[in-house]
Amino acid sequence: MSATPNPVPRTTAPLAASGAGQELRVGFITHLDQHDDLHRIYGENIRLIQALEEIGFDSAWIATRHFYSGFAALPSPFAFYGAAAQATSRIHLGTAVLPLVPDDPVRDAEEAAALDYLSGGRLQLGLGKGVPSDAYSVFAKWGGDRELEYDDKTDRLKWAVAGGEVEGTKTRIWPPNEDLLGRIYHGTSNWETIRRAARHGDGLILERFGTGDERHPDRREGFLRRQADSIVEYRRTFRDAWGGARTPYVVLSRSAWPGSLDDLARTTAKWNDFARELGRVPLDLDAAGEALADNVVWGDPEELAGRLLDDPSVLLSDELVLGIHPSHQTIDETIERARVLYERTVPIVRAAWAAHRPTLDATLDTWQIQQEWARA
After folding, report:
1. How much helix, strand and coil, in percent to the nearest 5, is found in the chain?
2. Residues 5-14 pLDDT 10s
3. CB 122 within 8 A of CB 116
4. Are 10 and 49 in contact (CB under 8 A)?
5. Is 299 helix (H, G, I), strand (E, B) or coil?
């Protein structure tokens, strides 16, 4: 029986009373991409989440994407997490991320509020614009403008989650769930969306991969610095807007492979072929270059901890979500690698995070953001 996971600090709670900063929360993410047998993949990943709870992870996260993008097999989280909620009792359940733009935000709010009650308040609701696609026109609620629609729909979703009254009627959205408003996070690399999340008192999720030209081993350091800068920008904006009245919260996703580079290359061959076919990575990279282009670290547990801590965003975040890089492997292999990460790598990272945390405010005061990002 695992220990009770660390509670999730609510962004709606006063900073001093939220519990933020006491210990680094650690989650695990799955794309439901271990194989492509649809008759087995969903049930097997419920078993994965049960195992993650037993191991001790604070949270489980699922990549939610339409059209099997990036081999992610789950277009909507609600049915899957309803089953997971009944199969577990303590682990928190996160969406990474719910692609809100083509959806009806009121329907999503109803589903999310009900799921949160079903799970006993364990939902962490990550929202996003969705992976860009020219196929979104198939959805009746798609209007064609990702940026504008995302802002409007996040406002509408939060209104509905709170049980807003429908204009011109005496009817309210049901079930209301104001507690869930403190567990809403925006998955984005857009600086204005990051600032807006902070001004609205919401949380932030940062992705594992770079975008565009950043997906090259020679540009990985720049990608890591941009993400760290964006966390600082988020925290500063949040502090300016709220002081101590609310609590900033940053979820950081990272790929970590507890094993050799050769083993990593073998299990990610399908993914790497896919990335090359789409032109996401150069054709002439070796195995190490392909891994670094996708911001994957590998090695024995101690080496992994060191490589994670070389990433400046880790010490600036509140929750670290680790994943086995999208790869074909069995669920049992995934579980055992997750166990190695949690039992041997995570304690080293948590100790370093705890030592750094008292200096967070001083870091925010002295950090120099690169101006090319700040203008984004």
Report:
1. 50, 15, 40
2. 678 999 999 9
3. yes
4. no
5. strand
